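Issue: ligand-bound run for zinc ion - logging full I/O for the record.

Environment: standard queue, default settings, no custom constraints.

Inputs:
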Amino acid sequence: MIWSKEETLSRKEIEEIQLKRLQKTVALVYDKVPAYKKKFDEAGIKPSDIKCLADLSKLPLTTKEDLRDNYPFGLFAVDKDDLVRIHASSGTTGKPTVVGYTKNDLDMWTECVARIATMGGATKKDVAQICFGYGMFTGALGLHYGLEKIGATIVPSSTGNSEKQIMYMRDFGTTLLVATPSYALRLAEVAKSMGIDVKTDLNVKIGLVGSELLTDAMREEMHKMWGKDILVTSNYGMSELIGPGVSGECEYLDGMHINEDYFIPEIIDPITQEVLPIGQKGELVVTCISKEALPLIRYRTKDITRLNYDICKCGRTFCRMDNLMGRTDDMLKIRGVNVFPSQIEEVILSVDEIGPHYEIIVSRDNHCDKLEIKVELTKPTDTFKELQAIEKNIKSKLRVVLGLDAIIKLESPNTLKRFEGKAKRVTDLRTNKNN
Ligand code: ZN
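Outputs:
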């Protein structure tokens, strides 16, 4: 099922809408946001210079630092009285990033989530349990209102108290789970410890996962634990743009459809900042073209992906972005080699004897980078020979994928840290990380 007719517009129609909305948005920020006016003036650009979509690349980029420099409301294009909601990022480093919504912004956000939830198989018949933390984080409320719009029954269980989560799932007949991939795996483990088989004792058929990368291997792991029939789709967004709902996967699992009538995507080279040709991998940059409160122009997401404009088998014409490869922030430079944690995860999940939980520790010893990976055995193994064989297997697979040697530490089952929200699996102990 396709939620709205906009999702099947022709390329020409999409581009007409985009240009009209882009011109309106550029004029709005130039007029209402002094920080944008200053940036545009410095770049020698006037709103009237935007005559076609290709002119977008003439506009200056916006970064998270711009939001921080203008904390809390400096980039807002409306009066405070017109705001109906404020969210903020967690702000683990420095000040949080504050985002605001007008009534129309909330309606647009809800519409976007209704579309991506429908793409992921949700209908009004679903009982949707939302295991994202409610609060300043946009994930929970975004999914909440989008799913409510399509008529699903919402169970706003938030995170934590995993045994109670399982009880709700069983007693309420939950069919749809909203969670991070790592928390979905954790819930299956908890259910097992309660004597509940999630495949047969529960009714969960749909997983809408987000806020963390969903690698193919992680999806496979979800199927191993939750059953092969569960449709697991990933969706994408970030609070600066709207929250979840920027894009989502359909049942063909071949990239996430971007709601192009509200967002224009570009891919740039993160170093030179040049726009890359279609199909090339680089940093995703997004322009919001119908937001009122915080219409960010060319926002650098720091997420690495690639765009695909081929028409999808599902009938939607909106372009797709590949599931994320990682973030420019997450990329580790180890002995001069660029390494994404997602590459390490793919290897770990491909080894049967170890589970999906892991920790990556990077340190420096005598001016040489050291990569250590702690993994967890799925069952206790005492034979030295067996342990040695497992270690050797992981090491050689990693060498093929990364071109690097790593130290592998095999830990006993159920000893590594579990996460209820976004998993934090990498610890970089080096003082200078870029040499
Ligand atoms: Zn599709």
